[in-house]
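Dear colleagues,

I hope this message finds you well. In preparation for our joint manuscript, I am sending the DUF4870 domain-containing protein (Marinicauda salina) sequence together with its predicted structure, so that both groups work from identical material. I would be grateful if you could confirm receipt.
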Amino acid sequence: MTDGDTPAARQDTSGDRTLAVINYILILLGVPSSGILLLIALILAYIRLDQSQGWLRTHFIYQIRTIWGGLLFVVVGWATIWILGLGLLVWLFGAVWVLVRGAVGLVRLVDGREHPDPRAFLF
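The corresponding structure tokens are as follows:
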């Protein structure tokens, strides 16, 4: 256990942890809300990114990457919608991808674990 992972250090970041939980909930609700809540989560994650440290910082990075990846799926979906509805499949895959990443991140956060590779494409 490093100095940044001591229980005292984790208690000092309870505000960041609460915001990270709220962000994951916004991400999970953002897909059915047509992305409005994702935009709010993205702004909140960017605001806290530079101020957060250690294991919580990995969650904010993961949230930012998840939201930008979801936006990429939306853009590719729009660009390919005319190809026999391929865009619909891209959107569906993107929605599932965002939801799974949101759920995986939330579980890791609630368990008090950092995200092992927040910049990875998968989970």
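For the figure legend, we might mention the following. Helices lie at 7-12, 14-30, 36-49, 54-80, 86-110. The radius of gyration is 15 Å.

With kind regards,
E.M.
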